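User: My collaborator and I are trying to settle a disagreement about how two of our proteins should look. Neither of us wants to argue from intuition anymore, so we agreed to look at predicted structures for both before our next call. Could you fold the first one, then the second, and keep them clearly separated?

Assistant: That sounds like a sensible way to settle it. I'll keep them separate. The first protein:
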Amino acid sequence: MTVSKLSLRPLLCGALAVALVSQAGCAWTRSKLGMDVEYQKSTEGKPLVVPAGLDTPSTGAAIMVPDANNGPLVSSDLPPSNLGGGASVGEGPAPASGVAGIAELPLSDSADEAWRRVGAALPGIAGVRVGDSAKLLNSHEATYRGVTVLLRAEPTTAGSRVVALGADGQPVTTGAPAELLALLRDKLAE
């Protein structure tokens, strides 16, 4: 039995059509036939160029490590901050106050009310530099005699208490932070 030439012609035409369709996506075929994609010629695809000076953030005075031979770093040693968010009362570190420090300041107010009262009283204490405040944490950042602490109002069964937290997040119960709590107690009593 022989296959007629007429029956092979549609098969060859179909195979040729499949070959052409399968090559339609080939880059070689497109470039040879003048079908380059216009989006590849776009100028918007150039890489981003960062202007000089903006490639790294300024780290001036970001982390000040005190020299062990020169004593502790005090707030007057720091350059003025241009970050905002703070008010300074007095210049430089305050002299030793002679006030006996306290470990915590108990208040009969709620933690929210204590946070508000502490925020209002801090700028009135000589030698205190007030930093950022966080209502969500009921805390104020303050620097006194060169030591920066976080004053946080915490709820208690009798109302609230204000504690001074160091950089490690642990309560600081001695030194300048304890004196600051005592001065704050006196300021709130006025």
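The second protein, kept apart from the first:
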Amino acid sequence: MTKFLTALTAAAVSVACLSTAFAEPGPGKGHEGMDRQPPMPAFEDLDTNGDGMLSTDELTAARAERVQTLDADGDGKLSADELAQAEIDRATKMAERHAQMMVERMDADGDGLLSAAELATPPARPSDRMLDRLDANDDGSISQDEFDAARDGMRDRHPPQHDGKRGDHPGGKPPQERQAD
């Protein structure tokens, strides 16, 4: 049993270390990719023999494959320049996605380009975007069922933290609410 727990711990630590080496953009916090943590590779991708367990050999092979992918000069090692290039490539992809989203969101005439007038047009009000998102049947209003479904979906995506309290304030309340107590 001790041997199994040791192997499981080693695998967990290796997977955690691997997640920082796999520099692909993914879900996280921040503005358009800022402060995002790279996603962990899919378990199925790491479990190359398909036995439902990650071995040290599989994790080592995944690390070696990642090094080989980033190793531009083929010397088997990653230089600061190679790591920087990987970050530049990742940032470029994020910037391209961000620019494409801006064009899709702001291109009123559909020509695939943003004119000065389109850039000067203020974005839709948050209340308009919320209505569009929550109005599942497109009737122009939000029913109780649509509201409840959105609330439940939000709870599923953002579970409470800190002993069931939301927020990072002591007691789960922001300062202005604590003063009212």
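Some points you might bring to the call about the second protein. Residues 126 and 132 are 10 Å apart (CA to CA). The longest helix spans residues 80-106.
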